[in-house]
């Protein structure tokens, strides 16, 4: 089945352009041109007029098995976890996120969900995943990670994860905000363990994402050649310059501390981990703004699933990134072409070009004029089919 989509204004995954048509067949873009040129004849046209159209957006850091609004709840049964994930996937898609990278969930669930989504059994974004994260014994996020003691152990976990079908590897290198008792900054895996994990993953063609907050963790991760720093809370000027030189990307996830503070502390004013978020939020924002200024390549990620950081607020990261001085075009690139490269889905996603998925978002008002209009998402066309 063929049809044509036209719009006066369009972000194509790289830049803003005007008066474009997109010729779609069987969910794939087969032609792109200017509406002033002759368009293919006898094919139905949907004209979105002055409404901005963009590719589907990509969130490179989520935890779909977690319930952000019940953070104190026990993980629950397997059925409970799967139903939570299914609901979260639906919410993400409904907010324009058409591809995700999940960076940590209980064993075995993500390969099954990825398979179910690919077969059309559940509706949700395309899934790239890291399976279970890998951490030090008792380290950050141990509840949803494989715990490693030593180089042999960490190599074994990387190999096991690959055997279980992960697309990428996630390491927890330093402490974090939400693990009871752990400190924010210290290195939890040794430099030797980090190097071993990265070398094994790369040898097997898997990229490595690293949760790290502290200086020593960020430095060790960049030196080991990881592909992305997640959060990077204490990434100072020297470390940002290092990341830029090594081509290491940053997935800042400003939403995680923001929602922990603005929503979480209202619910739990005495929570130690939520108070910790409040202490670090400003320094994080300053560091991310600096990293962007000097040209560290950044990718959109929200950390949705962490306490009070909902799947229904995934587009608010646009507003938070804009507030620290990042321009709207750069933010859209972070959530499209840049994210597609990091997730290695750029052959099919991240831009509106011939051969790619015919996945479009339509905004009633223009977020390039006013960033809050990112909330005006009105229509979603997923692989050629209008779903909203
Ligand atoms: Zn996370």
Automatic annotation (TrEMBL):
InterPro entries: Amidohydro-rel, Metal-dep_hydrolase_composite, Metal_Hydrolase, Metallo-dep_Hydrolase, OTAase-like. Residues 53-379 form the Amidohydrolase-related domain. Coiled coil: none annotated. PANTHER family: ALPHA-D-RIBOSE 1-METHYLPHOSPHONATE 5-TRIPHOSPHATE DIPHOSPHATASE. This is Amidohydrolase family protein. It comes from Amedibacillus dolichus.
